[in-house]
Design a protein that fits this description.
The chain folds into three domains: 134 residues, Aspartate Aminotransferase, domain 1 (Alpha-Beta Complex), CATH 3.90.1150; 201 residues, Type I PLP-dependent aspartate aminotransferase-like (Major domain) (Aspartate Aminotransferase, domain 2); 70 residues, no CATH class. The chain is built from 14 helices and 17 strands. The strands form four sheets. The protein has a seven-stranded mixed beta sheet with strand order 5-13-12-11-8-6-7. It has a four-stranded antiparallel beta sheet with strand order 1-16-17-14, with helices on one face. β9 and β10 form a beta hairpin. It is globular.
Amino acid sequence: MIDPIEFGKGVRGRVVANARIDAVVSAGEVESDGSKLIVAATDDVLGLGSDTRVREALNAAVRKFGLARAAGARTVGEFEARVAALMGVEDALVVSHETAVLPLLPTWRLVSHVRGVRTISDAVPAMTPEDAESALGHAGMLGLVVEAVHLFEGDLAPTPRFAEACQRRHASLLVIDDALGVLGPGGLGAIEHLSLQDQVSLRILPLGRAIPGSGAIVIGDRAMLDVIRGALPAPSPAALAISLKALELAHSEATRRARALDVAHKLLVGLRSTGFDTGPCVTPWVPVWLGDEALTVQWLEQLAASGVLVRGWLAGPRSRLLLSCPATLTDEKVAQICDVFDRLAKKLAFPEASPQMRGVPTMARPGSYAMAGPAPLHWSTVDVVDRVRPSAEEAPATPQSAVEDLSLKARMLDAVETVTWRATAVGSTQLRRGADALRALLDRRRR
C-alpha cells in the first residue's frame, strides 16, 4: 500500500483556482455558480482561445477529421512545415506533450536548472550557471535543460549565461520555452526575445498556454528531429488546427502581444502601489508573495467573493497568488482588479514590500532584453525536492550554498548582468536603481 506521506514528498506545491468555472463568457470574464468573475488568472493571456477565427478553424477541422487522432493525417506535415516557416528554421516537429521528448534522452547525463516547475528526476540539479558549468565538466555529461520562463516568479532564466556555460563545456543547451506567442519581436518566445536562437540545440515550445491547443513544438537539428519523428504521437488534427491559426495570429498581430504586456504593467503598478511584493516579474505572469499557505487560501476565498478569478500556489512558506490577465481585458477591468486588492489589503494580512521594491516595473518588451526586476532574497531561494541523484563518481552534488541561496559572487554577477544587459533599453532611473541595489547588497555583506 502506498503511504500518502511518501507519495507527497515529491510534491513541491499545488496550483489551485479560487472558483469553478461553469462557462467562459469571454476571454476576460467567466461564470461561476451564477456569478460573473473578472479573469485575473488564465493560460489564454493573448485572448486567442475566444477569438472567432480560432473557433472557426476548430469547427472546420472537427467537420473534416472529428476529434480523435488521425494516423497519417496530412495536417501533421502541413503544421510542421508552416511552423518551420514562421519560426525561420529548417525543420520542426510536433509531439503530444512538452515532456515527452525528455525520456528519449539519457537524462542521467544531463544537468537541470532547479528553478523549473518540471522535475527531471535523474538529472543533476544546478541553481546557477556556475553550478551548471561545474556539473557539465564531469565526464560523460551531455547538456543542460533550462526552462526559459519562471511561471511562478514571472521572470526569465539567465539563459545567456547558461548558454555561455554550455559553450565553454562544449555541451548542448535544451530549452523549454513557455513564452511562445507572448515574448519576442515575432512572438516566438523567450529565446527570440533574448536573441539566442543559434545557441540552443533543442527548443521545446509547449502549446496550450498563450497558443491554445495541446502538445508541443520541437525545434532543432533536422537529423535529430528525424530520429524521433514517428516515435511520439502528434496531437489531433483539431488541436493542430487551432494551434496553427492562433500561432499565425500571434505572429502577425503585434498589438495583441504588446497589449498583454501593457495589461501586466498596469496590474503590477497597481499592486506595487498598494505594497504587494510582486518579485522579479517582467512578463504577463504576475506573482503576489504571501508566504503562508493558510493566508493564501484566505486571499483566494475573499477574491472569489469579490468577483475576481485568480490562482494560488500552495507551497507552505513559499505560497503566493498567481495572476495572468488576458490581453483583451480593458483598462477599467484592470483597475477593478487593483481596487479589489487595495480594498482587501485593508482587512487581510499580507507581507508588505519595502519601498524600494515598489518602483515602476520594466517589462520584457521587444528590444528591451529584460530578464528580471529587483526582488527580495526570498525569491532567489528554491525548495529542492528529493530526487534520485547519480553517484558521486558520475556527477557532483549541488553545493549547499546553491540550495540555500545564491552566493555573493552569483548575486553580483546577476546584478552586473542585469545592468549591462538592459543598458541600451532602460532609462537612467532604472540603472540608478540597479546600482543602488548592488551597493546595498555589498553594504549588508560588509556588516
